[in-house]
Amino acid sequence: MSNPVLVCALRGINAFRALGAALKGWTQGRDRLSMSDSLPQALMALTPEVTFRQALLFFTEADLVTGKACFYCLYNQLTQICFSPLVAESWRCRAESLFSYLQAGAQVLCTVLLIKPGVWSHRLPRILRDLHLEKFSVVGMKHLELEAAAASALLPCEVQQDPAAVEAHCTYLTSGTALVLCLQRPNAVKKLMDLLGPEDPQLAQALDPCLWRAQYGTSTVQNGFYGSRSYPMAVRDVKLFFPEGLCCAQCQTVKEQEV
Questions:
Q1: Quick one: which of 55, 63, 70, 85 has the most CB atoms within 10 Å?
Q2: Known SMART domains for this protein (predicted)?
């Protein structure tokens, strides 16, 4: 090749989708600026398997080790815990090999499912059966009556901008007893979101009648379930609903978060 190239190994949540969207926008902007080949061009790997093969081709294992400070900062942001200097230093020393990460596959994580009032008391056996079929393990369970503040914290950001919608959701969520489950499996957060479907049961029904909100929901307020929408939110929800801890959870991530 006559010109040098820059090869980057990137890591992130939904990395392929996010990078693909970013490159599409960048390419469209590039094409509007110039029709020549003078501006840089970009290519990305198409699958995780191809990524691993290309990483072996271009990098050594020493090249693909996350920076200690970055790993500590990411962990601190996710858990929002203020560590003592001694604990912080121990975390900075735990470098992570990305080769090992790629080979290990999806991590076992925890997420939270809240079954809203009026649903779990009639449908719990079927819901538990479906969770078992989807390879979830229940590592925490409790029924409780939500307070208004806790109910409001569970609402999506767009709903929280509408006072009338907040009042409707909170009135329903505090109208009876809810059942909260802490669930564990590889890629638990995304898998649960995929099972629940959109917040609007009618939209869920149009997409796939088998989605849980399509089956159990009747409106955007009474849509059957709340699920942690991201991993940081799952960490928050576990701490909110299970402050006593998860004695049955086996995943290393949860044990580390209890520090």
A1: 55
A2: NDK
